């Protein structure tokens, strides 16, 4: 009788436990590196401090959907890192440049974001030697990692405490590496030439992952590249290609997507080697490519009734992408319903598209190993974004 009388309380106990997991998350903080797919305001802060000319994504309509003003995010609203933070019960992760002079936000366990829009994995010196100059930033992955290491004493004090803090943090490694191909393509480099970059890019990512593990990291999410052959920017650059170069099912450029797959396959091979060397570390591959391919293959299924290839905001042309009239500049135009578009400005996606990718990765099957097996977020009801604690950075 004692056992049966206590049984009705079991679901309540499970619910209480689940709420605790949700409220506190599986990690004390998020530490992020990367480029414009993850930057929550670092480049905006860097430009302001240098009195440089603000890039186009620092003007409306960027940020219009959720923040109602430009925050430095390259989208109309939230990014994957924002959805992840919200659903782990955290406030949005602040950019390093907004908190580096006062670390109290990080000390409370919120985490910090080192990602910078335009950043590359390879250092700027490599690209400059190839005749490619980054107009946005020289904050490569190694530079970001340097910022992180130099900030540790202010965040967590002594090496032992820092190792413990990093151990309890979720490390997001980008996406990073896409701009190592984007910048050269825009500069006129051939795809054949870029193939030689792939092992170099992967080596830098793997070196950073290894160094973070040595510093104490036990859970790292390492994204692959998106299907760049479906990007409005690339489709415009290669506009006029032969008919057989396009995928009939999606309209994407086959050779560019195969290039992205080559990057992703090599990355996964190297991540497997790290897993063998560090069996107690959760090294999670995030399959951005196939998570995104879902809506490129079936846009209307995900609410993208205006398609997945044409940009919502841009300067005209077959895909509404024009490098001379970028989204945010006076002559550009923006759609009235960005939630019906997957592509935001040619190179970046809409908040709605990022949410699909987020759910596919962190609540679905598009990570290896499954993120849900490491952090059981699927056991917790997703939090209503409107009720989350949000601080705009």
Task: Write up what this structure looks like.
The chain is of the alpha/beta class and 393 residues long. Helix content is 41%, strand content 7%. It is globular and about 55 Å long.
Mean pLDDT: 89
Element pattern in H and E: HHEHHHHEHHHEHHHEHHEHEEHEH
- Poorly predicted parts: 1-24, 378-390
What structural class should be given to the helix and strand makeup? alpha/beta
Determine the fraction of residues in helical runs and give it as a percent range: 40-55%
Beta-sheet strand percentage?
5-15%
C-alpha termini separation: 56 Å
Which sheet architecture does the biggest sheet show? 6 strands, mixed
DSSP strand count: 8
Whole-number radius of gyration?
21 Å
Oligomer: single chain
Main β-sheet, spatial strand arrangement: 2-1-3-4-5-8
Count of discrete alpha- or pi-helical segments spanning 4 or more residues: 17
Tell the overall outline. Answer: globular
Label this structure with key terms.
single chain, 393 residues, alpha/beta, six-stranded mixed beta sheet, two-stranded antiparallel sheet, 8 strands, 41% helix, 7% strand
């Amino acid at each position: 009788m004692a056992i049966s009388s206590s049984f009705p309380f079991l679901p309540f106990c499970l619910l209480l436990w689940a709420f605790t997991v949700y409220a506190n998350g599986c990690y004390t903080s998020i530490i992020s590196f990367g480029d414009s797919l993850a930057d929550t305001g670092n480049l905006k802060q860097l430009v302001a401090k240098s009195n440089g000319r603000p890039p186009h994504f620092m003007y409306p309509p960027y940020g219009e959907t959720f923040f109602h003003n430009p925050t430095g995010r390259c989208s109309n609203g939230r990014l994957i890192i924002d959805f992840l933070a919200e659903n782990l019960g955290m406030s949005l992760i602040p950019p390093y440049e907004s908190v580096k002079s006062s670390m109290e936000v990080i000390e409370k366990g919120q985490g910090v974001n080192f990602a910078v829009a335009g950043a590359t994995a390879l250092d700027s010196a490599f690209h400059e030697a190839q005749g490619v100059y980054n107009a946005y930033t020289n904050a490569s992955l190694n530079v970001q990692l340097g910022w992180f290491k130099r900030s540790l004493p202010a965040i967590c004090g002594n090496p032992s405490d820092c190792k413990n803090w990093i151990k309890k943090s979720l490390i997001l490694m980008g996406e990073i590496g896409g701009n190592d191909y984007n910048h050269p393509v825009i500069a006129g480099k051939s795809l054949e030439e870029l193939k030689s970059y792939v092992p170099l890019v992967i080596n830098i990512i793997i070196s950073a992952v290894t160094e973070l593990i040595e510093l104490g990291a036990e859970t790292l999410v390492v994204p692959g590249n998106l299907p760049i052959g479906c990007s409005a920017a690339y489709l415009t650059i290669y506009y006029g290609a032969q008919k057989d170069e396009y995928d009939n099912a999606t309209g994407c450029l086959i050779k560019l997507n195969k290039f992205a797959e080559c990057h992703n396959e090599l990355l996964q091979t190297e991540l497997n080697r790290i897993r063998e060397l560090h069996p107690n570390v959760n090294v999670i591959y995030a399959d951005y490519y196939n998570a995104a391919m879902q809506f490129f293959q079936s846009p209307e299924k995900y609410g993208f009734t205006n398609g997945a290839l044409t940009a919502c905001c841009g300067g005209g042309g077959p895909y509404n992408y024009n490098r001379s009239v970028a989204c945010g500049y006076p002559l550009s135009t923006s759609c009235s319903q960005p939630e019906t578009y997957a592509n935001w400005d040619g190179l970046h996606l809409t908040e709605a598209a990022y949410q699909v990718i987020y759910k596919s990765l962190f609540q679905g099957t598009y990570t290896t190993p499954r993120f849900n097996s490491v952090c059981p977020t699927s056991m917790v009801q997703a939090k209503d974004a409107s009720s989350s604690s949000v601080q705009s950075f």
